[in-house]
Amino acid sequence: MSDIIQLLPDAIANQIAAGEVVQRPSSALKELLENAVDAGATDIQVLVKEAGKMLIQVIDNGKGMSITDARMCFERHATSKIRRSEDLFAIRTFGFRGEAMASIAAVAQVELKTRAKGEELGTLICIEGSEVKKQEPVVCPEGTSIAVKNLFFNVPARRNFLKSNPVEMKHIVDEFQRVALANPEVNFSLVHNDMELFKLSAGKLSQRIVGIFGKNYQSQLVACEEETPHVTIKGYVGKPENAKKSRGEQYFFVNNRYIKSNYLNHAVSNAFEGLMAPDQHPFYVLFLAIDPSHIDINVHPTKTEIKFDDERTIYSVVRAGVKQALGAHNVVPTLDFSLDVNFTENWKNDQTRKDEVSRENSYKTYSSPTIKKQDTTGWERLFEGEKSSDIRETAINEAGDDSSELLTFSSRANEEEVESAIAPDPVKPVFHEGERNAGATFQVELNYIVAQLGTGLLLIDQQASHERILYERYIKQLKNTGGASQQCLFPQSLSLSLADYTLAMDLHEELNSLGFVIEEFGKNTLLIKGVPADVQINNEKALFEGLLEQFKHFKSELSLDNKENLARSLAKKSSIKKGIKLKSQEMETLVGQLFACQNPNYGLSGNKTFVKLDLSKIRSFFEK
């Protein structure tokens, strides 16, 4: 029998490894950036074209490579980070597996220029699909420049799998931001299609956060620092009032390596318990420093998942550190009963506060007739079967000496001529689906609308109903001609993060169909010139920012296309909220529009929009 097992050629083995290491352009950028940081670079430039599909180039001023190292770095399992098995438990560098460069070279056209410090000439190497096409001396500056061109040129299925340019660019920006946050002492720049997106100068972590996410974050940063013998935590968390519906801006770094951990994320969220809504997520950038011997980062080729030998301790330290930071910066609200227990004169001299305390702590006292203790004939008569009216007269006569005034309220239930207080009106028509009899309409707790029907009552959730009405309206606008726009008297300029700006540009056509009129207005800035005509707003910028945030939240929670997601997001953002007082005509209009919808029964969250209470059901409440 002939042998059938044979060793795979290096080119095929590299392509197989590339399936895990290089999943999209951002994966290649991540590996190149981490290698540049490991090389001791203080200035790193990133050049990208067509969202990385055409070109990803990383230029650094690190220590460079010799001729032999330049050729060796493209071999499988070739690395300068480890030498023996014990080194796996003391890793402090980003790369160590020796697979990244070989995997990238297997699925792209790579051009490497490098010169070590002190050398007169550098080295140029060109590789296509793991095959070396050129190697020669070249004049170049100290450091390394790696250009990855035409990614997946020899793997058509993987190239067709790539998403649109805005989506791929968002992943590239995410990877760039993670490495930039982990290394604030390094200068970073990112250029896409000859447009500079980021230019970050070396500085403190707080300056790096503001440089990446914008000046709005400067006022919401809360320093977090906790040191224990096992782990040290440093970084910043955002204030609760700035929490968002999406999880995007949450970063954990262990020994400066970005990781994903739902367990540690729960620790931070637990520390914010009671300070924000359950469906909101806080901003944080936290760095954990721990002995490498207590963690295992060799879990996945992307190295974003690690294992701790004592996760519970890490969880407790993270939770305690964040809680202490919030308390130390007076972010946690204090209990205030309009009374300072140490300085009572503060509120006693303030008439407004004094009135508030009086209203909160005063209760109306109702006096009842007093029955003399020595005379219990009234109670004896009760058991003797005498009429309750005689008992009431006796009690009134006995309490005649009491100075309290007795108030007697009449009741229609005692009037013999009234047969039934809730008898249905025979002239009112029976309520059918889509029809409603005109009658009294009012609000309960500024939350529910009560409408009178011919056969009972209709209880309507005003927010859920309005969301359903707006959603179907916006879906129709997106599928048909579009909606009317209300021009802003003074156009508003809105500065966004790069990710949000890219998202807005990707949704430009859909936003225009809804009635938004936006234009590019410089770097990562939009000019809002019009909003949908039927949206009642006072702040165009807040509406647009909230719409993008809601869109990202639904994108992560639900599998919807852009049009349906956008319609749902705008309906959620611009609907009538609970606690809003409505006029009778507004309530009538809302009820009519609800039953004109294709699906009036349920809101966007699957909850009911209305409940019908029949007269038979009402009668059952009062019958034995």
Automatic annotation (TrEMBL):
Residues 440-582 form the MutL C-terminal dimerisation domain. Residues 351-370 are annotated as: Disordered. Residues 209-327 form the DNA mismatch repair protein S5 domain. Residues 351-362 have a biased composition (Basic and acidic residues). It comes from the Bacteria. InterPro entries: DNA_mismatch_repair_MutL, DNA_mismatch_S5_2-like, HATPase_C_sf, MutL/Mlh/PMS, MutL/Mlh/Pms-like, MutL_C, MutL_C_dimsub, MutL_C_regsub. Keywords: DNA damage, DNA repair. The keyword DNA damage applies. Pfam families: DNA_mis_repair (PF01119), HATPase_c_3 (PF13589), MutL_C (PF08676). This protein is involved in the repair of mismatches in DNA. It is required for dam-dependent methyl-directed DNA mismatch repair. May act as a 'molecular matchmaker', a protein that promotes the formation of a stable complex between two or more DNA-binding proteins in an ATP-dependent manner without itself being part of a final effector complex. Belongs to the DNA mismatch repair MutL/HexB family. PANTHER family: DNA MISMATCH REPAIR PROTEIN MLH, PMS, MUTL (PTHR10073), DNA MISMATCH REPAIR PROTEIN MLH1 (PTHR10073:SF12). NCBIfam families: mutl. This is DNA mismatch repair protein MutL. It comes from Echinicola rosea. The lineage of its organism: Bacteria, Pseudomonadati, Bacteroidota, Cytophagia, Cytophagales. The gene is mutL.
